[in-house]
Amino acid sequence: MTKIAVLGAGKIGEALLSGLLQGGRSAADLMFTEKHEARARSLTEQYGFEAVTVAGAAEKADVLIVAVKPQDIEPLLTELRPVLRAGTLIVSLCAGLPTSLYERRLPAGTPVVRVMPNTPMVVGEAMSAVSGGSNATPEHLKVVEELLSTVGKVAVVPESQQDAVTALSGSGPAYFFFLVEAMIDAGILLGIPRDLASTLIIQSAVGAATMLNEGSSHPVILREAVTSPAGTTIMAIRELEKHGVRAALLAAIESARDRSVELGRQHED
Ligand SMILES: NC(=O)c1ccc[n+]([C@@H]2O[C@H](COP(=O)([O-])OP(=O)(O)OC[C@H]3O[C@@H](n4cnc5c(N)ncnc54)[C@H](OP(=O)(O)O)[C@@H]3O)[C@@H](O)[C@H]2O)c1
């Protein structure tokens, strides 16, 4: 069985480790590094994973999953370089960090797979996009796909599309939270108590997401099915179009992509 170490067990690292445990991996095959002793103790008590040092992770694990904040990457790679065993697979969950950064900092030939996950990983519903670096083989990608499929869906994309993916699914949950928040406010405007407005909107979001996910229909077909002639929905749709909501989403996501490109440039040599 592959031994896996998560380097930096924060929100995403813990979500992945607990998802792997729920997906049937043994706690004995999972380990982590963590700067804060109290947090490390609590993760071990709660799940049974071993807290290790970076050198311990490099010695024992076959796959090292990097889940520190992008700004913490340099000291981590400096610590990892002298202890890394040949053939160990590096999986980066760090937003904006190219595989070439790892390839430059780690020993020649180190296989690296870059992943853009998203926060629904904490409920086992992540959307992760994976890209192999220049030393990653199709087998390495398969290992990563299998790992991540225990916490959601996985798509393989060329690394050149990772900035677009970051803007679409990496930030995507935030756009839905924003829409839900605005729709709850509309409920308040119409005199509905906040708790009830939240229930009405959140359940509508869950129901709509389930229909999109389980059915084979295109979103346009689903929307047209609830848009009757001279009815209430078409009145709302007219206002959404008048206020440029579709154009706003296109511009917003394009702008998020541009910011991702800009952040990635900070890691070019
Ligand atoms: N959260 C998201 O929505 C999301 C989505 C996609 C991708 N990501 C990526 O996932 C990564 C983790 O994000 P997160 O939200 O889980 O961040 P986080 O909660 O801050 O977790 C990172 C953890 O790593 C620790 N750490 C930093 N340097 C370390 C080192 N050298 N050795 C061991 N532990 C170290 C941090 O400690 P300190 O707090 O003391 O620094 C923190 O506990 C980021 O690179 C992010 O870009 C996150």
Describe this structure in words.
The chain is an alpha/beta fold and 269 residues long. It folds into 2 domains: 4-159, Rossmann fold (3-Layer(aba) Sandwich), CATH 3.40.50.720; 172-263, ProC C-terminal domain-like fold (Orthogonal Bundle), CATH 1.10.3730.10. It has 12 helices and 8 strands. The protein has helices spanning 11-22, 37-47, 54-60, 73-80, 99-105, 138-148, 162-170, 172-189, 194-214, 219-225, 232-242, 245-265; strands spanning 4-7, 30-33, 50-51, 63-66, 89-92, 112-116, 126-132, 152-156. Strands 3-2-1-4-5-6-7-8 form an 8-stranded mixed sheet, with helices on both faces. Helix 5 links the parallel strand 5 (89-92) and strand 6. Helix 7 (162-170) crosses helix 12 and helix 8 (172-189) crosses helix 9. The protein is elongated and about 70 Å long. Bound molecules: NADP nicotinamide-adenine-dinucleotide phosphate. Residues 7-8, 10-13, 33-35, 67-70, 72, 75-76, 93-95, 117-119, 170 line the site of NADP nicotinamide-adenine-dinucleotide phosphate. Keywords: Amino-acid biosynthesis, Cytoplasm, NADP, Oxidoreductase, Proline biosynthesis. NADP(+) binds at residues 67-70. One of its GO terms (cellular component) is cytoplasm.
